Amino acid sequence: MKKINIILLFCLIVICGIFWREFQSFFVAKLQINQEVRTVDSDKESIKPVKNIEKSVFIAYWNIPETHSEIEEYDKAIYFGVAPDKDGDLIDDLGLQNIDKFVNISKNLQAKLLTVRMFEEDVNFAIFEDDQAQKELAINVAKIIEEYDFDGVVLDLELGVIPTASVSSQITSFVKSFSSALRIGTVPKRDSPVFLALYGDTFYRGRPYDVEKLEKYVDGIYIMAYDFHKSRGEPGPNFPLTRRSLGEGGPEYSYDFQQMIKDFSTIVPRDNITVIFGMYGYDWTLGQQGLPLKAAVAIPINEIDTSGANTDPESKEKNIKYTDDEGYDHILWYEDMESSDVKIEYLKSQGIGSVGYWVWGYY
Fold it and tell me: Where is the signal peptide (predicted)?
């Protein structure tokens, strides 16, 4: 009898142990779920919508306003810009020569930034591989900042190469060097903030920019939220707000403005993000199959005949279909103030309060 009682007691202990282990598993799983829910909720709560928007405008060296009144509504005027050669010297082109004209109309009534144009791949790589050229570029840009009292720099470094680890590392190293040089007194008596312009499709198309590293070396990121549909590609919006099919059997937007903001804002602080809208459209000439016959033509929105325009409900951008005098069908997609305003409302809801427009004179 005593042996039976011992066996029963042992069985009871085993059963209680199993029950306790299952209860612990359930409790821990429940706790983890609750923590995940709280994390998601806290993430939502951490996004504080903004009410006010800071607006910037790019002013190209080839089209500078005559008077300040034409740009006085903007908080920042961004001069576009100067360009280096392979040695880091600034090229003596209209970009350099017209700085005086830009400064005269800005009149120090608003912040003004200087764009460094770096579009030539052979020049860019030559500078990447030459430490002295990098130093010369920083010194020469600093001289312009000091002479004309610029408030900072926008580095427009564009590369359309295969995104290898080596190229990515070169870009990061250069940005770090350039930004550090302007921050540590290359310009006498002050630091000069450096902002980096990046493609809106950086994450989607796997560009050679390590955003997580780059954002640590600059004061902010300017996202170029345009050219999602390329002039040499198939027709579509400049950068669709949301994605959807263009129609039965039509191509689907595989990326959108909202996802772009999510991708960047997971890495870059929202206060350090400025979104740039391209105020122009692309006009594609179509063949019998509805596919482009040649590269699209870029058209400023102030040159577009908007009669008959349709507003796309998903992208929020507009398109116009027409037939030219030679009988070819066309489709023209474009961003305008109305579509950009819709996107700005979305940005405000996401805690992003800085936007810009490319470029003065297009709208």
Answer: none
